[in-house]
């Protein structure tokens, strides 16, 4: 007889810390405006993949939620939200999508964009993520990135990208805090991709690598 106070979890519900299983993960990495979101959204439509953009998790909060207010405070200045709160919110979100069945950790690869965003976040997620590949979208043309961010600000009503000073601050944070995330992973996992190519060309490079990894049973 099932105990209603202590229900047996559904088989797809995943507890990475308790059963030591980790999420099979692809990281999309690069400066703001490099195109992580564009690629992530497409990859997330492929069966067997689940896309999670940390910025979207924040943006989906209600403004009267204390975390929502914290996000507006930090993102409005182009700064990162503190790590403890960010990782806590992210864990809650990923548990939610596992519970509602949108993400099935036993079947799906997690496509992460915007997290981990500094070496401390890498450490905090070490026991949760099994990183199979890091796609580093590079863009040598700063002007192109600024232009993309400003276009997106208008299209998606993103306040953090509308102001040139905030954009500059976000690019600084990427250089000073985020870029060193790359050094936290085995160089064999890191694939550098020129993001000044068309989205289609970038996608083709990413898909070729994922297909190879999956064929090799990674
Ligand atoms: P982009 O896609 O342009 O890089 P995001 O949507 O990922 O931007 O992030 C927008 C803002 O959300 C960041 O400037 C930061 O304030 C906050 N944020 C998103 N992800 C993280 C994270 N992992 N750690 C801390 N802050 C984050």
Order of helices and strands: HEHEHHHEHEHHEH
Distinct ligands, ions and cofactors found in the model: adenosine-5'-diphosphate
What is the H level of CATH, i.e. the homologous superfamily? P-loop containing nucleotide triphosphate hydrolases
- In the CATH scheme, what's the topology name? Rossmann fold
Q: Beta-strand level of the residues, as a percent range?
A: 15-25%
Number of strands: 5
Protein described:
45% of the residues lie in helices and 15% in strands. With 218 residues, the chain is α/β, with parallel strands linked by helices. The chain has one domain (23-213): P-loop containing nucleotide triphosphate hydrolases (Rossmann fold, 3-Layer(aba) Sandwich). It has a five-stranded parallel sheet. The longest helix has 17 residues, at 83-99. The protein is globular and about 45 Å long. The site of adenosine-5'-diphosphate has 19 residues, from helix 2, helix 3 and helix 4.
Outline:
The protein has 218 residues and is an alpha/beta fold.
Main attributes?
single chain, 218 residues, alpha/beta, Rossmann fold, 5-stranded parallel sheet, 9 helices, 15% strand, globular, disordered N terminus, binds adenosine-5'-diphosphate
């Amino acid at each position: 007889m099932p105990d209603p106070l202590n229900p047996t979890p559904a088989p797809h519900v995943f507890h990475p810390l308790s059963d030591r299983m980790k999420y099979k993960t692809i990281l999309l990495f690069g400066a703001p405006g490099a195109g992580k979101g564009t690629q992530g959204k497409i990859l997330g439509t492929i069966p067997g993949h689940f896309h999670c953009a940390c910025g979207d998790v924040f943006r989906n909060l209600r403004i009267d939620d204390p975390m929502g207010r914290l996000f507006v405070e930090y993102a409005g200045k182009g700064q990162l939200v503190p790590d403890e709160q960010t990782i806590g919110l992210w864990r809650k979100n990923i548990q939610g999508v596992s519970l509602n069945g949108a993400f099935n950790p036993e079947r799906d690869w997690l496509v992460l964009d915007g997290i981990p965003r500094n070496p401390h976040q890498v450490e905090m997620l070490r026991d949760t993520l099994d990183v199979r590949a890091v796609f580093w979208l590079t863009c040598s043309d700063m002007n192109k990135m600024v232009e993309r961010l400003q276009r997106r600000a208008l299209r998606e009503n993103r306040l953090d990208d509308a102001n040139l000073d905030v954009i500059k601050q976000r690019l600084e944070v990427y250089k000073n805090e985020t870029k060193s995330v790359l050094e936290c992973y085995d160089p064999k996992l890191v694939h550098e991709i020129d993001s000044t190519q068309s989205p289609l060309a970038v996608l083709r490079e990413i898909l070729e690598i994922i297909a190879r990894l999956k064929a090799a049973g990674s």
